[in-house]
Amino acid sequence: MSVLNNITADNPRSLIKPVFYTTTANLAGVIPFMLLVGAAKLIFNPFVHPDLPLDTARLWWVCGGLAVSLILLFVCEIPAYRAQYRDAYSAAADGRSLLAEHLRKLSLGYLNKRDPGELSNMLVGDFAMLEHGISHLVPQMIGAAVMPVLALIGLFFLDWRLALCLFAALPVAILLVLLTSGIQRKLGKRHMRAKIEASNRLQEYLNGIRVIKAYNLTGVRFARLERSFRELMRQSIRLEGMLGPIVIGAVTCIRAGLTLMVMAGVHLLLVGSLDVVTFVAFLIIGTRIFDPLTTALAGYAEIRYLEQAGERIVRLLREPIMQGERQPPADHDVELKQVTFGYRDQPVLRNVSVSMPAGSFTALVGPSGSGKSTILRLIARFYDPEKGTVTMGGEDIQAMDPEALLRKVSMVFQDVYLFQDTIEGNIRFGRSDATREEIEEAARLACCHDFILKLPNGYDTRVGEGGSTLSGGEKQRISIARAILKNAPIILLDEATASLDPENEAEIQKAIDRLVRGRTVIVVAHRLKTVQNADRIVVLDQGRIVEQGRHDELLTYNSLYARLWRRQQDAGGTADD
Ligand SMILES: Nc1ncnc2c1ncn2[C@@H]1O[C@H](COP(=O)(O)OP(=O)(O)OP(=O)(O)O)[C@@H](O)[C@H]1O
């Protein structure tokens, strides 16, 4: 991966405009400078050649030229400014959207391995650094190098001896920065790791603040957070402590060149082999190239640091997305054939084979952690199995376009996530082009309409963080309304484990009955009485299918299902498995 790809998040073209305009503006900036040298020459000429009068007419022309160059500079700097800011920010915004889009297409298995704090840090913090690189650092560094390079060429023609003195120490300064770039990189990496760790700990602390308070873990958790902050501070000091001397050392080398030039100039002047006008020109130019060179060297060190943020983004962008192009078939039979799967090394499903014919109702039951929800995730292709296949209409779903496959599936999860949006907007996630009437109809079928009308702004009430809060049962019904609106032929339902009040439970059951009518339904059931009428009940234990059949059939086996059933009956039908 090249430096340019890294610092632009794989979009080096985003640098073209900022660099072009900034370089043009810097080139235009050389004109007043040359005019200034010309003016100095005119003013000092009578001192060198006392027989010549001061050429006031040309001096006025130079002044006029200075005024014109000021306007030219203004005209050149406006597009440079616009290119630097507008284009850099829009490149970063595009990059962020691209990365967010890419994250959606990656397998959940990959995302599970990453810390959510690290990902949000990349999307916000790392991109902000690249924004700064594209808008400021790179154009300014290249722009800053323009003047010294031109000065180097011009001054060698004017007097090669003084030019040699002035630039003698520059290679040493450049070498110093380049030779230490390995150490800078290592320290930069450590600093970045400490930054990610601190942001992960902070996110963990904020997300878990309720649990931390409830269990009085404030001391323990806060100590972890504080440790990560301290480590970040240590790495920041180490990084700055290293960068500072390098940049100061490089700047001192450049300064040494200026001193050397002045000493040589005085000597040459005294022995009469240099005229005062040339010396004055060297003094003006020598002091003016000092600032841009310092900017360029310091900018280089900073770019090497932000390159690492870019490298992480580029690596993530190149992570292969879930493959598959075929459109799902019209037939909605679902089948798992000898499927083995684990989230990490631990196997969760072992050699599972189960067939769910189109239009049938299948219930997955079994003890907690037996792998029921995992089966739903594999059918929706959140993950691909390690061994075996999941098929739809007889075709392997791994060959299918994951997004097209998801259009065939409606999922109702245990924990419902409501976006920070209105109730209408939240239901609309089911189908973005739905009309208000269709949304209300779906809400009616999902038994939500009445409670929605009682909210302060009805369907326009904002929910989610910072909005109205809904009860667990109400959230469930909103998610069922979403699924009804989506109208997909396959329904995957993960029944809520939390106990609801009888009224809410009855409403949810009514909503589910309407949702599943005439579709291929696969339900993870915790309350066995809700799936007594299922076409097939699949009983899982430790990732294997131990029994399957209809309710009455399974009771006659007098095995795991019968035991679970009796236990729930004894507990009044409400106890969990
Ligand atoms: N994202 C994940 N990463 C790692 N392990 C996971 C993940 N999701 C689930 N597991 C583990 O896989 C096993 C099966 O989980 P799964 O959610 O499929 O069980 P389940 O039968 O649906 O359980 P429950 O009835 O409690 O919802 C459990 O041991 C669980 O800890």
Précis, in short:
63% of the residues lie in helices and 11% in strands. The protein contains 21 helices and twelve strands. α7 packs antiparallel against α10, α8 (181-207) runs antiparallel to α10 and α18 packs parallel to α19.
Characterization of this structure:
The protein is an alpha/beta fold and 577 residues long. The protein contains 21 helices and twelve strands. It has two domains: 262 residues, ABC transporter transmembrane region fold (Up-down Bundle), CATH 1.20.1560; 237 residues, P-loop containing nucleotide triphosphate hydrolases (Rossmann fold, 3-Layer(aba) Sandwich). A hairpin with a 2-residue loop joins β4 and β5. Bound molecules: adenosine-5'-triphosphate. The site of adenosine-5'-triphosphate has 11 residues, from α13. It is a multi-pass membrane protein. Its main location: membrane. GO terms for molecular function: ABC-type transporter activity; ATP binding; ATP hydrolysis activity; ATPase-coupled lipid transmembrane transporter activity.
